[in-house]
């Protein structure tokens, strides 16, 4: 296992569109293990391979309080979306920034598991937010890009001022995805 380096916005590599995983093999399973370790250590509730500069369609998520319900999605696809809801999101690639984003309230996602078997999952609440946020990363999109140009400029300024080694604030009841 290894901790991976997380790219920080506005790193251009975060805008890379990830490619499909042709085969779920040991290399992909190792990537998932390393991504999970990196996500738990950060700490965050989700991480996309894009954020660790691996441009493959892989995401890991754990929204449980107990931090022992790891979910991995390989080649995820949204097959249905319903409703709308606003949620205050953060991102390990945009430390210290939290903004409301409107997304689908309920989703159905199809993906491959770590054995390469397809599965379908229905999600709502934080899990639905997280899946959509991480899938955006695979398309090269960072959540702050949903905000107004003015807000994005303010965020860029704030990030430049931040000490690059400073951790994200602890204890916020908001999700770092
Ligand atoms: Ni993120």
Report on the structure:
The protein has one domain: Peptide deformylase (Peptide Deformylase, Alpha-Beta Complex). It contains three helices and eight strands. The protein has helices at residues 26-41, 125-138, 149-161, and strands at residues 46-48, 58-61, 71-82, 85-90, 99-103, 106-112, 118-124, 175-176. Strand 4 (85-90) and strand 5 form a beta hairpin. The chain starts with 25 loop residues before the first helix and ends with a strand. The chain is α+β, with helices and mostly antiparallel strands and 177 residues long. The mean pLDDT is 94. The strands form two sheets. A five-stranded antiparallel sheet has the order 1-2-3-6-7. Strands 5-4-8 form a three-stranded mixed sheet. Nickel (II) ion binds at residues 91-93, 133, 137, 177.
Count of distinct strands: 8
What's the CATH C level?
Answer: Alpha Beta
Give the terminus-to-terminus CA distance: 21 Å
Average residue pLDDT:
94
Summed up, the domain count is 1
């Amino acid at each position: 296992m290894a901790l991976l380096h997380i790219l920080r916005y506005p790193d251009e590599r975060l805008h890379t569109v990830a490619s499909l995983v042709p085969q779920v093999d040991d290399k992909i399973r190792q990537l998932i293990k390393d991504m999970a370790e990196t996500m738990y250590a950060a700490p965050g509730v989700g991480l996309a391979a894009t954020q660790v500069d691996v441009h493959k369609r892989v995401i890991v998520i754990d929204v449980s309080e107990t931090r022992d319900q790891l979910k991995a999605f390989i080649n995820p696809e949204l097959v249905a979306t319903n409703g709308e809801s606003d949620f205050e999101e953060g991102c390990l690639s945009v430390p210290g920034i939290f903004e409301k984003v409107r997304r689908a309230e309920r989703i159905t996602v199809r993906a491959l598991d770590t054995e390469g078997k397809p599965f379908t999952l229905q999600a709502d609440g934080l899990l639905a937010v997280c899946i959509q946020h991480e899938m955006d990363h695979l398309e090269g999109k960072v959540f702050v890009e949903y905000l107004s140009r003015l807000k994005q400029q303010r965020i860029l300024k704030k990030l430049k001022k931040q000490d690059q080694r400073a951790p994200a604030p602890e204890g916020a009841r908001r999700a770092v995805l």
